[in-house]
Structure formats: structure tokens, C-alpha cells
Specification:
Layout lengths: L8 E4 L22 H10 L2 E11 L1 H6 L15 E5 L12 H7 L12 E7 L4 E13 L8 E6 L4 E2 L14 E7 L2 H13 L7 E5 L15 E11 L2 H9 L3 E8 L26 H17 L14
Parallel strand pairs: 8-9
Antiparallel strand pairs: 1-2, 2-3, 2-11, 3-10, 4-8, 4-11, 5-6, 5-7, 5-10
């Protein structure tokens, strides 16, 4: 089932098969915790856990083969991996046909406001740069329209300079990445990691900014993609081996009982200037736009809306 004994990926679902999997490999002296205890802690804490897969992600190659609609803004010479997430146990039908039509074979998924995706494992082997990012993959902008393929970053990356891990360098070191919109869900997952022996110093929370997203599984909900970018391996053979068999695990964590929401505010961005973001104002901006359109329509005006986009 798995091509080696040192990686695996999960998204919320059955747990029993996981208990027989071997432990994640680690560098000497590192103690990234117990995977089996972590899964048991999650199960006791009323999470459902569903297996997925870590995969090689090659947008440029797929585009050249005619299997992707474009190259998704990929950096040439910067190999990617991604997390292939199975459907949520709350909505096992998967993605609708209109999303599949434009997303082709992309490893995209939908996410409920109280769910989380968690990556646990080792960072890549030595290289000049690596990063982890969640993207807004597709969005439907109008009620009757079709979804559009976007691949927009949802905030700053966790990268070689900012990731929380342990050891004298950032390579092949233990990490845990929590992608979630909800503060209580994040706290529950962190507690489960700590009880399993994973140190707080390797835990990273990547906020999914719910104020500007359409989370859930209804028609018109957004889809997402999680990717890991790499650049300039020190040892090309080790880098190629990592891309073929990524050294991380992924979990979609779904509360068995729908949680009372406590969403994160949008985090400040690492940008020039103040570093403050106005992303939480997005819903109000949308209401203002609609009010302007309705006001001038009532006065007999016809609005022409211009939308900027990248042209292939």
C-alpha cells in the first residue's frame, strides 16, 4: 500500500488500519512523538480521521501532457508535493461535476468551518528553500456561473525561515502543520499532539481565513489545495526521492459532532508597511458592492464591472 515505511497521509475517517503502520523515521536524537497515541487521542476527543496520500505534484508536467488546463503559476525547476485529501465524512459525494471539469486531476478538496487538515512528518532534505501553503483552488463568483480555477494563496507561507521545528537546521526535522479556520479546533489538535509527545516547538498553525471564504459543502463552496514547494537541492538524488515519496502525513480532522464555531481573525501579513490586513472586511466590501449596484440600477444605470485576471 505504501512505497516505503516512513511516510503516510490521513484525512478524517477510519482509524483501525492506522495502528499497524510503522513509525515515522527520524534523525538520531529527535523524538517527534507517537503517531499511534496521537490518533488515539484524536479519536477519544471525538474526531473522525480519514486516510489520504502524500503525492508528487507537477503542474508544469501535467500541463505539457494536456492533463491540466494551465501550469498553475508553478515555478520552473521548483519541484512540488501536495496532499491528496479524500472527501469529508459529512459529504462523501465528493466534488461536483462542474468543479471536476475545470480542476481535472488536481488534488483539491472542500473544508467545513470546523474541520482541519494536519500535516505531520519531516521537513524536506537540504535545499535552498521550501514552503508549505494552502491555496484557494476554485470559486464560483456568481449564482448561475461556473467555478473558476484560481490557485490564490491564503496568507503567508510557512517556509524554511519561519517554520517551527527543532534541531540545528531546518532539514529532515519534525514538524506539525495545522490548517484550520477555528480556534477551538486548533486548541484540541494541539492538545492531542502534546499528549502524544510532540513538542510544542514543532507545531505550526496556518489560519484559513473564513471571513473571506465559502467554507462547507454546499453548491458554490470554495475548494482548496495544499502544496509544498522546494528549490535547489543540495543532493539532487535525495531531493528527487523526497518528491516521489514525501516525508509527511496528512489528516483531515472532522468533529464527530459539529462544533460551535470560534473562527480565527485573519492574521497580519508579512508585507512592507504596517503588516496589517483588511481581509476581515471582505464580507462588508461585498455588501457595499451590491448596494452600489442596486442603487444605480434603480436610477436607470447599467453597470459594467471590470475584473482583473491573468491572461494565459
Amino acid at each position: 500500500m505504501f512505497p516505503n515505511t516512513w511516510f503516510r497521509v490521513l484525512a478524517t475517517g477510519a482509524v483501525a488500519a492506522l495502528c499497524t503502520m510503522p513509525a515515522l523515521a527520524q534523525k538520531g536524537g529527535q523524538s517527534p512523538g507517537s503517531w499511534d497515541v496521537f490518533i488515539a487521542n484524536l479519536e477519544r476527543n471525538d474526531f473522525i480521521v480519514t486516510p489520504g496520500d502524500p503525492i508528487k505534484f507537477d503542474p508544469i508536467g501535467k500541463f505539457c501532457e494536456g492533463r491540466y488546463p494551465n501550469a498553475l503559476y508553478a515555478n520552473f525547476g521548483a519541484p512540488y508535493t501536495a496532499a491528496a485529501i479524500k472527501p469529508s465524512p459529512r459529504f462523501t459525494a465528493g466534488l461536483p461535476a462542474e468543479v471536476k471539469d475545470i480542476a481535472v486531476e488536481l488534488p483539491i478538496f472542500r473544508l467545513a468551518p470546523d474541520e482541519a487538515i494536519v500535516l505531520v512528518g519531516l521537513t524536506p532534505p537540504p535545499e535552498a528553500y521550501f514552503s508549505y501553503q494552502i491555496y484557494l483552488a476554485t470559486r464560483r463568483f456568481s449564482e448561475g456561473g461556473l467555478p473558476e480555477l484560481l490557485l490564490n494563496s491564503l496568507g503567508d507561507t510557512v517556509n524554511i525561515h519561519t517554520i517551527n521545528t527543532i534541531g540545528p537546521d531546518r532539514f529532515q526535522r519534525p514538524m506539525a502543520l495545522i490548517f484550520t479556520a477555528d480556534q477551538r479546533i486548533d486548541a484540541r489538535i494541539r492538545a492531542a499532539l502534546l499528549r502524544a509527545g510532540y513538542p510544542a516547538s514543532i507545531i505550526n498553525t496556518i489560519v484559513v481565513p473564513s471571513a473571506t471564504l465559502k467554507l462547507g459543502f454546499e453548491r458554490g463552496s470554495d475548494t482548496f489545495l495544499i502544496a509544498n514547494r522546494n528549490a535547489l537541492w543540495v543532493n539532487k538524488a535525495a531531493g528527487n526521492a523526497y518528491v516521489e515519496h514525501p516525508t509527511f502525513q496528512v489528516l483531515r480532522l472532522t468533529p464527530a459532532v459539529q462544533a460551535t464555531l470560534d473562527p480565527f481573525p485573519a492574521p497580519p501579513l508579512r508585507v512592507r508597511g504596517t503588516g496589517q490586513t483588511e481581509i476581515d472586511l471582505t464580507p462588508k466590501l461585498a455588501k457595499l458592492r451590491q448596494a452600489i449596484l442596486e442603487q444605480y440600477e434603480s436610477l436607470g444605470y447599467t453597470a459594467t464591472e471590470y475584473i482583473t485576471k491573468t491572461v494565459a
